[in-house]
Amino acid sequence: MNLKSLFRLIIWELEENWSFPILEIVISAAIFSILNQPITHLEFETRYRNLISNMGITHLILILIVGAVFSRSFAGSLSRGEVKTLLSYPIKRWILFLSKFYTNFIVIFAVYVAVFSLHIPLLALSPFEPIFYVLLTSLLLHLMLLCAVAIFLSLMIKNEIISFLASILLPLGLEVIAGNDKFLSFYGRFELFFNYFEQLTRGRLPEIAFQDVVLVISLPIFISVLLFTLSFIYFSNMQVD
Amino acid sequence: MRKLLRLGVIFLVIGLSLLLTTALRGSPIYIQPIKLTITPHEWVMLNPQLWMPRSIKLSLFSISEIDVYILDEYGINAWCEEKRLTSIFTLNGVKQSTLELQLNERGKYAILIHNPSDLHLDVYISITLYMLEKDLLSASIALTTMGIIAIITSKILPRYATRGM
Amino acid sequence: MGAPIISTRELVKYFGNTAALQGLNLNVPCGISGFIGPNGAGKTTTINILLGLLKPDYGEATVFGLDCWRESFKIRRRVGVLHENNAYPGNFTGIRFLEHVANIYGFAQAKKRAKEILSEVGLSEAADKPIKAYSAGMRQRLGLAQALIGDPDLVILDEPTANIDPLGRILLLDKIKEIHSSRGTSFLISTHILPELEKICSWVSIINKGRIVDQGYVRDLSAKYSANIYRIEVSNPHLLADRIREMEIVEEVWVEGENVYCRVKDLNRFYGEIPKIIADLNLQLRSFQYMRSSLEEVYREAFSWRVKADES
Q1: Is residue B165 part of a domain?
Q2: Which one of C43, C53, C92 makes the best mutation probe of the A interface by having the most chain A beta carbons within 10 Å?
Q3: What ipTM is given for this predicted complex?
């Protein structure tokens, strides 16, 4: 019964929040940010490095997309009164929360995976290229973190535009402050993670400590889970007027 | 019909985005001149590179005549394993030349140079990749066309359906 | 009154330092009930608490005997609601929106159910139009449709006739009466438009400043707050009026057209004496009617009684 309700609400969310032109804009933005990168490594052995040559722009566009989509879905729905309408039906709050999260997360991730996947034939890589899956894992972790931050801010602020701005400025501000710190900044974490697996898959002994890699993976997971749990508890008990 | 229209719009958007990306990626890639020193009668293969289905301009300079072969992946494997020469392009006895070739497939390519003379030779090679990537261009045009067809079909079919009634 | 379907006991709700509800004791039986009060009285806050959207700071609120905060899911299965400013997804068509709602309520043939309910509220022709293109009246009818689609036992309507033209209001109220008589669905209607409510409600709860001013069956409240007015239609009203003015039990007399209106102190004595007076004056009596207080008058009187009670 809960699974059916969740599925129905996912369909609702897809039709409401991913109608024209939202999905089209996200697809275009993903294509431009990922595929429109200069080919800097023509050497055949190191061509996989072209997968990540534009990660800065990709990261920025991802922040904008996640901020816009989640603030519209959570804060926008709250301020427009759509959450009040939905919660007047026999819907459990946690199912509504999860439906919004799953729908938006899965669509954004699927679009990015699809566009990154276009890179495989463009770089004449094997579909089983391990670095590609390292990249997707890193993307997944980063997306989870950005989603958790955007949801938390949307529920606290409850205003679509302000939560959108906060969802962009907070991660960007942290990036600026952290610089290239290998744990605190996205680019630092990404480089460490990528370089570790690059060295592992290219047959050389990694110079990066395994503990650092574990920390780089667990830090965003920990923060995501914490923010997500707080948001979940808040949404389940919040008063809707 | 609404679903067909939406699908058409999505294909159209993907196609147009890819088309624009193809245009932006179409800027020339210029590889800095590579200098090779080849001993007499030696065969030297440059590190294999990833080349796209674009136009390639190879500029060569040598003080004596050399033989230049462009190998695709099959040719590279044949040469590396069996020392068997199967090239897609051949230039024999050139000292200074510019070779323009059109590639149709994306993949691994290498330049194999043979010094038939008794001299130690310095060879300078520069490579430029230009024009649009053919496979991306085809894919984007195909997707754009599919999108337009789907949109037009979604508009026309209901009219035929009502007329038929 | 049987067991109430809605019951609150000493319900208190604060928003910051403002008390929206200050010990609300609301009881609503089965049937069509009105919930009336001035702006800011606490009607919408009460409705939100009943639906489990707000948690009371103190007191109890139950619907069908179920706690409104802890068991709100079970309540919402049996209740349909039309909020004052209902928000609909603008991209959806009317039929698609109702199909989704029917799915939420677990209807196997959601589209069929949606079509049925759209037809019932007179929106079949606008079914495939996007909701953002609907007029205010159409949106209200869509709101009624989504409140009824789950076949609820209770429907709560918050300002259902707002933004609707007079004919639309009449049709809406007729629809409510028809649904109540055919399916036995109870209604709680929160509105400012009292003359319309009077036509269909059997029970009224009057709220002000977060407290119940009075509540009860409309006939009982009318009798309680009656203004003791008789209307007499005679052949020569001015002659009768002049004679009645001399009576000590009459407080006020006025004439409108062929009718004489009298506010009296002693109903029984007046009822006994008037026929004799008319016979003495040789007048032709056409009608003689006791004027039951309208809901507006009950509302006004109840507030004035409350003010006097508070002052004393």
Answers
A1: no
A2: C53
A3: 0.85
Spatial distance between the Cα atoms of A146 and A62, rounded to a whole number of angstroms:
9
Q: Do B146 and B102 share a structural domain?
A: no
Q: Determine the pLDDT at residue B3.
A: 86
pTM value is 0.86
Close Cβ partners of A92 (under 8 Å, ≥ 6 residues apart): A2, A5, C73
**pLDDT class of C310 with cuts at 50, 70, 90:** low
Domain presence at residue B136: yes
CA distances from A107 to A100, A142, A214, B40, C125 (A): 11, 15, 28, 60, 34
Do B33 and B18 share a domain, yes or no? no
Identity of the amino acid at A8: R
Shared domain for B115 and B100, answered yes or no, is yes
Measured between CA atoms, the residue of chain A closest to residue B31 is: A42
Torsion angle in degrees (nearest 10) through CA of B87, B90, B96, B100: -80
Q: Do A36 and B24 touch (CB under 8 A)?
A: yes
pLDDT tens per residue across span A164-195: 999 999 999 988 888 877 788 888 888 888 88
The residue of C49, C91, C107, C158 whose CB has the most chain A CBs within 10 angstroms, and thus the best one to mutate to test that interface, is C91
* 8 Å CB contact of A24 and B13: yes
Domain that holds residue B12: 1-26+132-157
Quick one: pLDDT at residue C168?
79
pLDDT digits (tens, 9 = 90+) for B152-163: 999 888 877 766
Contacts of C77 in chain A (CB under 8 A): 90
A–B: how many Cβ contacts below 8 A?
Answer: 59
Domains defined for chain C, CATH in brackets: 6-222 (3.40.50.300), 227-291 (3.30.70.100)
